[in-house]
Specification:
By secondary structure, this protein is of the alpha+beta class. It has 3 domains: 82 residues, Uridine Diphospho-n-acetylenolpyruvylglucosamine Reductase, domain 2 (2-Layer Sandwich); 110 residues, 2-Layer Sandwich (Uridine Diphospho-n-acetylenolpyruvylglucosamine Reductase, domain 3), CATH 3.30.465.10; 193 residues, Vanillyl-alcohol Oxidase, Chain A, domain 3. The chain is 29% helix and 22% strand. The chain contains 15 helices and 18 strands. The strands form 4 sheets. It has a 7-stranded antiparallel sheet. It has a 5-stranded antiparallel sheet with strand order 5-6-10-8-9. The two termini are 42 Å apart. The protein binds flavin-adenine dinucleotide. Flavin-adenine dinucleotide binds next to strand 3, helix 5 and strand 10.
Length: 446
């Protein structure tokens, strides 16, 4: 199928060579997103450098009746950053992170986590975010944001002070807890539904060098170690981030337990002792270096399939289900990841933000990937079956930033939260211009 081609004087006059249309040598790269299974052909990719660009791009798209997608880092698993026969508002020119004297950081709508981590590290501070440096700050923050520092510092959106938002009507407004509490609540969890965030302002937190380690455990001991992590998680110091990953780095599956200690390096050994891990690598490093450690495990263009779940506890049943999933690993590069949450994430009252599932103790990702499309059917079957078992032992919820379009949003959010989001959506975007993967449809006040 060939995509719609738009050649509009207003578009070409204003965007010049920042308008990338089919036929342009840059078009294939401009439409590609992180997940190589996404093959969506938009009518135009418009590189937006500021809020005025975004407002104009929205006006052009809407006048032509074309659908719109917003692209931050392009990581959303279902490819929500592109839209068929529509206009992609590519925020990549807005890749900045500027520290202010008051200890806050202003971050452009198209910045990546690496941009944010490097800027804050230069002044010995941090914003808690994800674990892969090429992820977009935009999508991650608007959907919550979890990572190594979550138990100590909460979600990324918990450090958010304000958002500069261009609405569907093309108006720019600064949204914070004082100006529009209802919208600010909605932006922290389901934020991609309400407008284009051109600038985020975050509070930052002191951060020195961290101690990062990894131990590898054979599969026949993996359930025991996972169960021990689950048993001691609630008592572990909050400064200890833990990510257990069942994977197959060579011929046989193993459990890799990675951890990051973000308090005084001298206390790291005592902090990890309850995990009872075998000897492994341990290094004291600056935080941005840790944040790039697994970048190469998730390259752009790989063919990924991912299903998320949340666990209230990691007991023997959950541990055995995870290990059993690893014994059935299909070909390719499958992974089962378990990330420690709790602590500061759960300190924030559930009703304070739209983000669902703050009480979950662990987030789980079931990920399949392979270069060969012929392997995909078997991979997806494995991921769906494994996920069904693990999710059945979990909270019934999922971290929305890892979910595809199949998730039943009303069930995960609960009816009152879903209805409230639909009313905010009706006020901000009554014509339903913004349709991210976790899509809230407008609903008038009744
Ligand atoms: C390899 C990898 C590692 C990851 N690791 C983590 C992790 O450690 N922690 C974690 O919390 N999440 C993680 N994620 C999930 C990540 O949070 C989501 O994929 C998120 O959608 C990424 O945002 P993005 O801007 O890169 O993606 P995009 O696909 O560009 O955007 C995602 C959604 O947000 C919208 N959006 C993006 N920017 C803006 C903006 N400025 N204004 C309005 N809407 C916007 C888009 O329209 C789209 O609907 C990871 C994902 C991948 C692929």
């Amino acid at each position: 199928m060939t995509a719609t081609t738009i050649r509009l004087p207003a578009l070409e006059r204003h965007f010049g060579d920042r308008a990338i249309l089919p036929g342009d040598a840059r078009f294939e790269a401009a439409r590609a997103v992180w997940n190589g299974t996404v093959d969506t052909r938009p009518a135009a990719v418009l590189r937006c450098a500021d809020a005025a660009d975004v407002a104009l791009a929205l006006r052009i798209a809407r006048a032509e009746g074309l659908p719109v997608a917003v692209r931050g880092g392009g990581h959303q698993i279902a490819g929500a950053a592109v839209v068929a026969d529509g206009v992609v508002l590519d925020l990549s020119p807005m890749r900045y992170a500027d520290i202010s004297a008051d200890g806050t950081v202003s971050v452009g709508g198209g910045a990546l986590l690496g941009d944010l981590d490097r800027a804050t590290d230069r002044v010995g501070r941090v914003v808690p975010a994800g674990t892969v440096s090429h992820t977009g700050v935009g999508g991650l923050t608007l959907g919550g944001g979890v990572g190594w520092l979550s138990p100590r510092l909460g979600l990324t959106c918990d450090s958010l002070i304000s958002v500069d938002l261009v609405t569907a009507a093309g108006e720019t407004r600064t949204v914070d807890a004082g100006t529009d509490p209802d919208l600010f609540w909605a932006l922290r969890g389901l934020g991609a539904n309400f407008g284009v965030a051109t600038r985020f302002v975050f509070r930052t937190h002191p951060q020195g060098p961290v101690v990062a380690g990894r131990s590898e455990i054979p599969l026949d001991r993996a359930a025991e170690v996972l169960t021990r992590i689950g048993a001691c998680a609630a008592e572990l110091p909050r400064a200890l981030g833990v990510l257990a990953r069942l994977e197959r780095p060579a011929a046989v599956p193993v459990l890799g337990v990675e951890w990051v200690w973000s308090a005084d390096p001298a206390d790291a050994a005592a902090a990890i002792r309850p995990l009872g891990l075998p000897a492994g690598t341990v290094r004291t490093r600056r935080f941005p270096a840790v944040q790039t450690t697994v970048d190469h495990r998730f390259p752009h263009g790989g063919r990924y399939y991912l299903k998320p779940a949340q666990l209230a506890e990691l007991g023997p049943a959950q541990a055995e289900a995870l290990v059993e999933g690893a014994t059935r690993f299909p070909a390719g590069d499958p992974q089962l990841e378990v990330l420690r949450l709790g602590g500061a994430v759960a300190d924030v009252p559930q009703e304070a933000t739209a983000f669902p599932g703050r009480a979950a103790a662990f987030a789980v990702n079931v990920t399949a990937s392979a270069d060969d499309p012929a392997l995909e059917a078997a991979q997806r079957r494995w991921a769906r079956e494994t996920h069904a078992v693990i999710a059945g032992l979990g909270t019934g919820g999922a971290y929305l930033n890892f979910a595809d379009r199949e998730l039943d949003l009303a069930t995960v959010l609960g009816a009152p939260v879903h209805d409230r989001l639909r009313r905010v959506k009706h006020r901000l975007d009554p014509d339903d211009v913004f349709r991210p993967a976790q899509h809230i449809t407008p609903r008038p006040e009744q």
